[in-house]
């Protein structure tokens, strides 16, 4: 609906979702191929992974077929790159810093960076808001709940 | 039973104990709202406190945190699509659409009320049928669990809102994710790309990612119309008489499911809520309404997870066997107080046993009383512009997930599942079946292989053990019913529309 | 804060931290362990943390870094600064892991400073009441019909599992070992009649035994256990020489200065001399007692040798 083009997506576009799933199934089979399989009555650790791998591949193919054959397919929604990038960056920064510099700085950075997912974000507002949010987080997690995470490293 | 329950009530009605019960459920409620920080974290942090309290009080406060968190878990699910506890994942499915439709108050009220009824039914079963339930639970061995899960997967493969094929593919993807880690039967490492994955992917990461983070990515850059018409009048919060009537049976069914699954050691509230939702959808006359903010779909799992939270104490109290990690913690607190939990607890410590059960009764009432007035406050939260809200939510998810196992890997995985959930939804794949497969898959594999190991590869045990045979029959009936109804549905659609 | 409010509420206890005139410690310490919040390891960590904190006047936080049988936490601790502020709660599994894992990112002995044991505990062999007269009857039945006795254990590679394997190796009995998710699940299976035996700690078994649901057939320690003097040992009955005792202990990264080791060891043995701490450790089924670092290290080295051999002989999948 939101797309401007009236025409239906190409076959390649239609099979994207099933294709990715097929890839997941194939990777799974490749990795699990060396696991000992055993028998149905005495399964090895590789039995179920192989069954599930084949099941994913089969369903992926069925999905591709049904998507390609479908008379009308809703357009895949556009990816909101700005949200994706800044939200991801915020979380990754938290993960990278929390073990090194402690909870308070990593909370501040995570809030500040992720705020830029909103294109109205202005640096000064971000600075003020991130400070306030960090203060709140400090009060909640460290003062009230006493989570065993250092506030500042050393 | 009733006499003893009254004895328990007399214990709880002492002002000091009453106050601890209140504190317990209140902390639980708050913890439940916070994404990622679950009852386990809260209880283990508070465990040293119980060194200074007697056994009954310790139990009452710790148990209160647990079932209180079940109430709180639904709040963030409804308002922000953020499951506060794994068992409230299903609450997102109907609760969040209601909230987006400016009916958050109604959803919160229905959730709180269903939780209350579920909790009370769970308590009633605990009082009246603890021993029979224990005996049934003990008859569930590996074959029974395996067949129960198959029945569950069959019933629930319809849990998503999209096409059957797509939702079933997601169940299987969930099972695949559940395979990561050391194989339970042999210890063999499967898909362990780094040592942090040896114990598998954490349910908290998966749930927070697929639901919470993906929703934030979707909305962060969007200007969501800030809701001017948010109504917080009590009249719009309370369901109409017609709505209320439609909820009676879903709540009762949900409570029944929850009570049953809660009493089985090793299943717990999350599975109970999934199963209650799946069954509600399977047997609904209007399955197409599910996923769009359908009240029965909200009420059934909410009552189920709270009933399960109460009956989960059955094996703990009657046998001294913890059904899950939270129960293990609570038993740990008992042990530290010098009480060895076991079958004699009920006889040797009647005041403790019945006092704790009575505290559940009182605790559920307290929870209802604090939840209904709080609805107003929670709805006001939605007036905060999303642009101000989401950075804070991100930090809460990060801290919650990190504190769960002190693991940076878990935080990164949460993001990965967030991106996955975001892309999935763009391509019409639903995240809920993934979680279902993830929870049920390992249970099926472990129990099936365990059954084969114990009964030396003899398949007939699935049919010769009575409970297992009943479950197999139910599964077959379900498949037949599904085929029959799809044939009759096709016959209807074959007729040209007039 | 919530914690403090709750403690202060009944005004039962006034904790006055003694201010010691020394340089270590001057900030919060932490005890890292490799198991889930709420497990025995976590509880022992909190009991010791609380006592050490009272003793040294600085807070002690407990940090759970679960994963891969505790090896994630061991690897983490091995890489931390040996300043005495990072301690590790070690369990018997530390010695098992040395034999069970192919590529540990650390050396189980040389990468650690061993401080002191906290407690030692045996395992008990239990069956449903009345099913077997004695442990001899079990072994007889197992020898007569190989594969007829099923032992439920708390997970592949757990000390419980290996103890069962060792019993089979020493008696020549052919048991079927079935893994469950933790001792409680194995105990449920025993109660439900799915398995014939379980081998687990007193905390898992004694409640049922007291209620007459289980019979305790034997204890795994070489000598009879003081808390259960009537229970025969495996050593004196079916498996001469059998001696399995598990333990909890405190360690730190390798290279902690001697003066700090002395302060820490002193705090640990002081804690283990307090009646209430002893009581809590004993409630968890262990015999509380401090040791020197050297004694602990010798214990760990001895057990690494034993378990590596069991894992090798029983053909348990190394990972």
Automatic annotation (TrEMBL), chain A:
Membrane-traversing stretches: 16-35, 47-72, 84-114, 126-145
InterPro entries attached to this UniProt entry: DUF1468
Boundaries of every DUF1468 domain copy: 16-150
Residues in the signal sequence: none
Keyword Transmembrane helix: yes
UniProt keywords, alphabetically: Membrane, Transmembrane, Transmembrane helix
Name of this protein: Tripartite tricarboxylate transporter TctB family protein
Species for this entry: Poseidonocella sedimentorum
UniProtKB/TrEMBL annotation, chain B:
Domain of life: Bacteria
Keyword line: Membrane, Transmembrane, Transmembrane helix
InterPro entries hit by this protein: DUF112_TM (IPR002823)
Residues annotated as domain DUF112: 18-436
Residue spans crossing the bilayer: 20-47, 106-138, 145-162, 168-189, 201-221, 257-279, 319-340, 352-377, 389-407, 466-487
Pfam families: TctA
Protein name: TctA family transporter
Species name: Poseidonocella sedimentorum
From TrEMBL, chain C:
Protein name: Tripartite-type tricarboxylate transporter, receptor component TctC
Cleaved signal peptide residues: 1-21
InterPro entries: BUG, Bug_dom1
SUPFAM superfamilies: Periplasmic binding protein-like II
Record's keyword terms, sorted: Receptor, Signal
Pfam family, one: TctC
Domain of life: Bacteria
